[in-house]
Amino acid sequence: MAALMRLLGAVMVLVGLGLVALFFVGPPGGTAGSVPTGGGVGNTEVPADGTLYLTVPEIGLEDVAVHNSLSEEDLDDSTIHLPDTGFPWQPGSNTYIAGHRMGYFGTDSFLVFFRLNELARGDEIILEDTAGGRYAYRVTESLVVGPEDTHVTEPVPGKSIVSLQTCTLPDYSNRLIVRGELVL
Known about the structure:
The chain is α+β, with helices and mostly antiparallel strands. The protein is built from two helices and eight strands.
């Protein structure tokens, strides 16, 4: 009986360590979900430095680097702007940004979009470019789509929007998209 209790105790310790590791490192494969590559505005002009900076006051994000890249390494480091989608300075664009829900401890991806689901209609999303341009958006909608639903990367006729993507909890099987419309 004592041996069984020791074995049970060891299993509980290992499970606990696994949960701690999951919290700090995230599950295997990241947690932004697969990043769609279809849609977008086509041949966008990429400035010399396509880096943007994201601020979402309602959920405590300030000046988060947004790399203009499809690189898994950049996604694991922070957030990414899908290069085949528009930029905020392009009228009628859908500036599409993906980030991990859990991310990786010690990087800017750690919990970057963990609270994305808390955003509500009217909350502010701000993008800034390296030339000092500032683009303010107001949240208009939140939706959940499947991992293959690339239509969310396409522009919305007559509007300039930003789309923020992360995965859904608890199983990361779908994508949470929060959209905002340009107001400034």
